[in-house]
Specification:
Spore Coat Polysaccharide Biosynthesis Protein SpsA, Chain A, 19% strand, 223 residues
Length: 223
């Protein structure tokens, strides 16, 4: 099975990649269908700012170059996996393919846009974690692979998994060389730092409101 293709959502800046340094690249995932939420999760306002924009700003403080995988909600250079809606593992690979196509070969700091309270401080822990292994936080006893620093080697593992038909992040966790980071290393309450929102009830629990943009329709996918 061949790798799903990725396509640019809009024009890419000619100087993309000029920010390459010892920092990891950043990949922001904004392309979920948001069926249960009923609105576009990337546009939910946190602190008066659409979350995609807020997370792009946080990523920009600790990572670069940056790419969005999704419809272009963050102001970052954006690509979309093709076909869209194939799930976060495919989206992760689409971001990686875009970075590699422009000459990048280091680790990638990945964040999903349904994480409401991830900050630059928490991302800095991941960006600066020592060693070359992938660094995946644990919160409430569960790994958080969609807010993690993935090594280039493990991103290649992800590509192989997708090419073989896998669509689950669990498959990547099972095969990657991952260092799991305990809750003790995170600034603030890790259960809040890594809290995500899938339904309007989740938003209400956090004192937030749905965005006015309807959810996007896409093909069924498996997490």
């Amino acid at each position: 099975m061949s790798m799903p293709a990725f396509v640019p959502v809009g024009p890419w800046p000619a100087n993309f990649g000029d920010a390459m340094s010892a920092r990891p690249a950043g990949v922001l995932l904004t392309g979920g269908a948001s069926r249960r939420m009923g609105c576009d999760k990337a546009l939910i306002e946190v602190g008066g700012v659409p979350n995609a924009l807020r997370l792009a700003g946080a990523l920009g403080q600790v990572a670069g170059p940056l790419v969005e995988v999704g419809p272009g909600r963050s102001g970052l250079p954006a690509v979309s996996e093709k076909p869209p809606g194939a799930g976060p593992l495919v989206a992760l690979c689409a971001g990686w393919e875009a970075l590699v196509a422009r000459g990048y070969s280091g680790p990638a700091l990945v964040v999903a846009c349904d994480l409401l309270f991830v900050t630059a401080k928490s991302l800095a822990v991941l960006a600066g974690w020592p060693g070359v292994s992938s660094a995946v936080p644990v919160a409430g006893g569960w790994p958080q692979p969609l807010c993690a620093r993935w090594s280039a080697a493990d991103m290649e593992v992800a590509r192989e998994l997708v090419a073989a038909g896998e669509r689950s992040m669990k498959a990547l966790l099972a095969q990657a060389a991952v260092e799991l980071l305990s809750e003790a290393v995170w600034p603030g309450d890790p259960r809040r730092v890594f809290a995500d929102a899938d339904t309007p009830e989740d938003l209400s629990r956090f004192g937030l409101a749905p965005s006015r943009a309807p959810a996007r329709s896409s093909a069924k996918h498996t997490r």
